[in-house]
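Spend some time on the protein that follows and explain the fold to me:
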Amino acid sequence: MLRQDYRLAIDNAWLQLHRTLTDNNAGDSSTRHHVFNISRGGLRFSSTEIFETQERVNVILHLPNDTEHKSLGRICYCEPDESSKACIYYGVSFLDNFLDMTPFQKP
């Protein structure tokens, strides 16, 4: 899959994920996940929680300007951190409600 949107590195953004399908072993995530970059169509984050690729999640992205972006998302990749086996990097694609990147563009 080719990345089509420009990714912007971002500080002070975090997100919460809520699983759309749960079983007895998986519940909603109340943990704050650190966001590394964002684009119109998704983001990259780290988590010690385990998510499956193709898993659907409800995303609440908390941006540095005190706004929230809510979307249905899909975990599109997972990647282990080479320095720490406990931390995993994930990618989320927004399935609806793409992010308006206008506030992040330079004038």
